[in-house]
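Fold this sequence, please.
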Amino acid sequence: MKFESIDEIYSTNARFAAELESLVGELTQEAAEHRPEGEKWSIAEIVEHLAMVEDGMSRICAKLIGKAEKDGDVSDGIISITSTFEERGVAIAKIKVEAPEMVRPTGERSISESLATMAEANARLEQIRPLFGRFDGNKHRFPHPFFGDLSAIEWLVLVGQHKARHIAQIRRLLASN
């Protein structure tokens, strides 16, 4: 996906967030906790995983853009997405990935609790949104286990891409019920 502006990234991420909430917000506890045969996670566990990951990604974005602010790295307005990020995004869409231990669901959180955690992560991202307009979100990097070193902008894009991946997974689970 190509982005022309930070606002476009935020808008895309908001669209995915609304889609997820619409998809899972009214599920019964039984439907949320049902794990179809052959699946590792229930829908509630997928949403819990999303919440853990987004909490971490929002903190990484804040740290990276905060470093750019501290260093006085002024933004030139260019949204730079590396070819490696794009290539790995295509590659990961075709494979099943094992989540690192630190973001594996416990099964102890409800969908509403997980959605609340995602709302907090989103609030954190909204708080730093003006910084992306003023400071260089491309310069500083932090490693991702599959994508490698990512900039704050790439982490911000990944928030939406990761959610979209799991929305598709949730749709498949709902269709199998």
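The beta strands are 141-144, 148-151. The longest strand covers residues 141-144.
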